[in-house]
Structures are given as structure tokens and as C-alpha cells.
Amino acid sequence: MTTTAVLGAGKIGEALLSGLLQSGRSPDDLLFTERYPERSAELTKRYGVRGVDVPTAAGLADVLVVAVKPQDIEPLLDELAAVLRPGTLIVSLCAGLPTALFERRLPEGVPVVRVMPNTPMVVGEAMSAISGGRHARPEHLALAEAMLAAVGKVVRVPEAQQDAVTALSGSGPAYFFFLVEAMIDAGILLGLPRAVAADLIIQSAVGSAAMLRDSGEHPVALREAVTSPAGTTISAIVELEKHGVRAALIAAIEAARDRSVQLGKAHEK
């Protein structure tokens, strides 16, 4: 069994630790780093996993999961470059950062797997897309895939598609939350109590997602099944199209993709 260290135990890092433990991993096989001592002590108490510094993590772990914010990557790579052991697998959860950045800044030959997860990881329902760097072999991809399967679904994509993945599923939960927020507000406008509106919309979202996942039907077919001739739903759909909701969503996802590209280019030198 490999020893895995999560570098940066924020929301995503903690969710991964929790998921690995729930999947049967022993706390003795896991480590984490955290800059705030109080937070480190809290996580150790909660999960029984030891908090360490970066050099200790690099010295003990076979897999280092980098879960820091992109703006914090430079000092972490500087620290890792001096202590990384040969053969250690780097799994990056950093949005927008290419495997080439890690390969350039860390010792020659380091295997890197790039991952774009999303926040449903905290409830074990993440969608993660993985891509291997130049030195990542099939066994490295398989190891990363098995690890991430503990917290959701995993797909493999070419790294050239990772910016699109970031825009679509990495940021995707925010689009759904935004839509749910607007629908709850609409319920309040129509006279429903906030709690009732929230219950109606959240359960509708959960049920609709289950239908999309389990039915095998195309979203258009499922939408048409709700859309009766001259009914209430088609009246709503006409308004959505009239206000350009479809075009606005596509443009928003393109903007997120462009920002992901920018994040990667900021670390090219």
C-alpha cells in the first residue's frame, strides 16, 4: 500500500482525505500539510491523520497530491524541488496548471498526473478528469484513478482538453448553484416561503440529475417529456430562449475556459 500525502488540506484536500479513509485506507498510510497549526490539529483530531511539513511529506510519501491554490504553487515547487525523492508520483489538483510546469520545476523524470476535480468531492460525488504528463506511465494513471474513484467518478482525457474540462465540470457546480438560487428567488416572488421553494427546487434538481444519469435518455428527450403542447413549461422555455439563456451559458463556459488557459500561461516562465 502506498503512502499518500495531501499538500494543502483545504476543502478539496480534506474531502480527498475523508474519501480515502471511507474507502478503507488506513490513517497510517495518509499524511497532510496545512499552514495553520489550529487547522492541522483539528484535522488530525477528526481523521486520525498526521499533519507534517512539506519536507517530511516528501520524504515519507510515495504519492504527493498537490491541492494548493494556483497562486500558491511557486513557493511549494521551490520547496519540493530540493527534497523530492526519485519515483515519487505528483498528482496535481490545481486548476489551470499544466504538467509541464511541474516537470520543469521539479527533478528530471518526475511522473505527474493532472486532475481537474470539482467540489461535489465533499459528498463523494466528484467528477474528476485526469491526464498524464510526459513521464507518467499507465501504472501512475491507474493509481491516480483508483485514488480519485474513492470520491466520485473519474475519466481520462488528453491534457489539451483540461482547460475545457475545468470550464465545464470544474466550475460546473457553480452554474447549477446559480440556477437553483435564481429559481428559489422566483419561488419567493410567486409567493412561496423560502424554505418551501428551496425544498421544491433542490429535490427537483436531485431527481432530474438521477434521471439524466440512470435513464440513458438524451437531455432533449427528457426536457420534451415535460413540455406539453401549449402548456406551462413551453411558456417558460420560450422566455428562456428569448432572454438568451442558452447563449449566455455557452459564453460563460468559454470565458471560464479562457481563464483556465490564462492561469497556465502565468507560470510558463
From TrEMBL:
Major location (coarse): cytoplasm
Primary gene name: proC
Residues that bind NADP(+): A67, V68, K69, P70
Enzyme Commission number, as recorded: 1.5.1.2
Taxonomic source organism: Crossiella cryophila
Annotated keywords: Amino-acid biosynthesis, Cytoplasm, NADP, Oxidoreductase, Proline biosynthesis
Family: Belongs to the pyrroline-5-carboxylate reductase family.
Subcellular localization: Cytoplasm
HAMAP family: P5C_reductase (MF_01925)
Keyword Iron-sulfur: no
GO MF term set: pyrroline-5-carboxylate reductase activity
Pathway(s) where this gene product acts: Amino-acid biosynthesis; L-proline biosynthesis; L-proline from L-glutamate 5-semialdehyde: step 1/1
Task of the protein: Catalyzes the reduction of 1-pyrroline-5-carboxylate (PCA) to L-proline.
Broad class of enzyme this protein falls into: oxidoreductase
Pfam entry (one): F420_oxidored
Single GO cellular component term: cytoplasm
Official protein name in the record: Pyrroline-5-carboxylate reductase
Keyword set includes Amino-acid biosynthesis: yes
PROSITE patterns, sorted: P5CR
GO biological process: L-proline biosynthetic process
Ranges for domain Pyrroline-5-carboxylate reductase dimerisation: 159-263
Reaction it catalyzes: L-proline + NADP(+) = (S)-1-pyrroline-5-carboxylate + NADPH + 2 H(+); L-proline + NAD(+) = (S)-1-pyrroline-5-carboxylate + NADH + 2 H(+)
NCBIfam families cross-referenced by the UniProt entry: proC
Domain annotation Pyrroline-5-carboxylate reductase catalytic N-terminal: ranges: 5-96
Domain of life: Bacteria
